[in-house]
Amino acid sequence: MALDLVGGAFLSSLFQSLFDKMASSEILDVFRKKNLNPGPLKKLKILLNSAEAVLDDAEGKQLGNPHVREWLLQLKEEIYAAEDLMIEICEECLPTDVECESLGRPRKVMRLTLPAFSKTACEKEIEPKIQEIIDTLKLLLEQKTHLGLEETSVHNGPYNSQRLLATSIVEGSDVYGREDDKEKIIDLLLSNDDSSNKIRVIPIVGMGGIGKTTLAGLVYNNDRVRKSFDVKAWVTVSLNFDALRITKTILQNVEKSDSQAHDNKDLNQLQEALKKALKGRKFFFVLDDVWNKKYNLWHEFMRAFDTEARGSKLIVTTRDENIASMVAPNVRPHQLGAISDEECRKLLAKHVFCNGSSSAYPNMEVISRKIVERCKGLPLAVISLAGLLRAQPNPKEWERILHADIWEMQNNDDVEILPSLWLSYHYLPPHLKRCFAYCSLFPHDYEFSKKELILLWRAENLLAIQKGQRPKETGEDYFNDLVARSLFRRTPGLTYVMHDLVSDLAKFVSAEFCFSWDDYNTNTSKSKARHLFLSTKISDIKEFEALSKAKYLRTLLAPKWGMKSSLLSAAQSLRVLSLSRYPYPDLPDSIGDLKYLRYLNLSSSQIKILPDTVCKLHNLQILLLSYCHLLTRLPNKIGSLINLLHLDVTGTPLGDMPEDLYKLKSLQFLSKFVVGKKNGSSINQLQKLLHLYGTICISGLENIVGVGDIAETILKDLKFVTELIFRWNGRSENSDLELERVALERLLPHTDLRILKIDGYRGTRFVDWLGDSSFSNVTSISLEGCSRCRLLPPLGQLPSLEELYISGFDELERIGDEFFSSSTSSTIVPFRSLKKLVIQFMRSWKEWSRTTAYGEAGVLPSLTCFYIWNCEQLVSLLPGEPQQQTHTPFPSLETLFVETCPMLETFLEWGSFSRLQSIHIQFCGKLFALRRNWDLRRFTSLTSLELGDCYDSLVGSFPEEGLLPTTLTSLTITDFEYIELLNGKSLQQLTSLERLSIVRCEKLRSLPEERLPPSLSFLRIHNCPFLEGRCQRENGEDWHKIDHISRRQRDGTSKKRKAAEKAVPKARMSDEDRNLVRGAKINYIYVDGVMEIIWCSDFVC
User: Do residues 108 and 220 both lie within one domain?
Assistant: First the structure.
């Protein structure tokens, strides 16, 4: 059965884009004003319509017929040529927007009031160029009968990204049929029978899409494996076996260093550094997706491990058995085969059906079983088909997929495409096909972010933006749909990657128009290239000349590499240029000659100054300058970039903003506005940037030195900004404290704001609008480093507030009724939606009181997570007094985290807290001394308890009888300095206990005679020197007390680990450390000597 396309062929969206340009008022106006003959334009459109009619049939047949594929490529080339010509007409024959501005007329009006210019030599070339394209199209259309191409119907319809069925898929939970393989690899990794001191290599071999990377990932992240090695690292190798890059990546993982720490070292230096770093350490590395067959390259790489490495292991995944034999000549590789049809059915159901069950779709279940048989046990085929089936939720479409011709079609000699992947692509709407094909310019295994790719699509005009929708929203819909169809796969680092076979499919579709330049294809013709990723440095003159021939190049992504000005001169058609991580301080002035450029990425580069010629890029829409740590100012005439839509300067230390920034009236995204020391009034430019949306950080507010510097209601009209960050930098004393308040008063935002963050505000009190109930859509507020404020604003009045972060109020001593409401007579339930509350670094805070009764809802009725940290004077955990209250405070509380509150004396004194599930208490000496008064048995849902840092010499045994509730499933005790015994009788009462962790209890001599609870399935003993010997397998005196536990872990007390733990602050942070943490905007908790993040406020501007 031949497949009609649901949305049309890949070229369909190219045709539509071209038709739109041909029918645009600009093109028609040029032909009319310049007396050009419109006849050829009409002929061109007729021919294009004829070609479009057979597109779908041609796309379906190109896999099995190389002649059809060649025909399609020639047609695509003519479409691109016609599109280039239309753009050339618009750009060359119309005055620029800057010229319009200079004439003092609006841009749109000027487009419609062109003077009747006389024909020039350039204009006389338009008709011959159109005729040339017409002649070529005629020749192509004459071949369609010979090629057997037929006109087909296209089921066009509005794109709907919400058509996908809901599923039960959870990241990392969709692995089936690999349990035996996983256990075999783990056994090899943990085996100690290797008589050699050298590293042992374990090859995993299997065809593409069989799951080699997935299996290696399961093993790499396994707890037993992780705890058996001192260090581990993962490197994706891919086609180019670069020993220097691989060694550098491993070294960075071992040393936990940043990406630039070893930039200037050669391979020998890196290997020596790696040898030194690995000395005496047991390590485990994974080299994923190895294609190199050259033994000399492998031998060169392995020199770094030519040292004692007893017990160390290296996994290599590859498709080639010869490579497996080369890397491990005397080892039998682990052959990874297909999974069973039954496992395939489970995998498909997990991805397609809600709750992983097809019972609600009996008709579809029968068809899905037959479709699974087509996948021949290949997990990637199943997953890719699942994305397609989920997007076509009806039996008829599934039957069409089951009986599609592609299952029987033979690939041509040049390419091998999985039928399931081709079907997934085949059913994409045309606009998604173009966006997917564009990704073929990325090298294999290239990791990209959602934001990065959406901006690239936007610059290339690949987003069909619907009325009322922003480009970002459209791009996210496209991106999420490709993820849902399993064409993009998320990595642990929150980036995305395409599987090799998916990448091959994209490269097949885009052919020679879109590719990456590396050591493997430098000899390929570049004359037709439109989109290019430069993944290797151009050092050879022949390579440079070859690249210079790509005169139609629209996209050039060259991360890390410098760019010769002569190459820029040759690439005059560029729309997109990425020089991220550009290694030089200066850009060539010729960058200003790229008159079509829409996208320029210089993020994380070493540039110190942008050349003024950048301001000549009048078509520029996207300018990325984030994390350019040497760049301190923008060009003075940046206002000339009147088409600029997106300016990102996050993390770049700008001193101020140009005075003509206000001219960027089309600007939609501005990550940061810096108020300069010399022109504090420049902040008023924001009033004119009415199209800004999303997030904006306004920093340098300390530079406002007079009321006249800031206009009233400066931000009121920025209706589309959803998140605001106000930052006062520096620590200079300002005698006019009232000015701080006035500045904040005039920064009044619109009432539809969602997120507000205030950092470093130095006023003594907040403004009236902060906490006003008219801000009914605010969901998150962060107040940090407001060191002089002594009162909190009435944030309880905000009806939608869900998250609240309060930190660094050095002079605040009391939180009272003003925090809940500005009126004692208010009937509004304070903080009715608040779910998460974090209060930290409040050095003077002693109490919070509530004189008004809670009412039936209680105080903070929706709060589920409460974190309180480093409040060294705080005495009571709950607001108010128990005798004042009639209802439970925090009735929805599930998680309570209290740390470094040494003066805290009272706990959850009243109330049932029936939903409380987890409690963490550490560095709270007075509170722990009163633990018998806690009455934890009140908390009927409590399952997890972590207690730490008890230095009470009277606590020699723990836990006391009746202290802990029987509902506990997890118990952790840390740093009980004087404890010598565990109370076995009390522990036996914990009949539900499954996990017990005992950490750094150095005087604890033995486990209780009563044995540990039979329900226990996990026991961890860490840095308890007396217990380690007693818990030795079979020979230890306490072994019989724990041999029933399925998972046991004894961590050693190495000198390095102890030294690291001594460096961890025990009771409190120093002021210097506090400032460091506050500056980094991250909260840290140390657990077992490991730093964990509980809150990152993301204040980086």
Answer: no
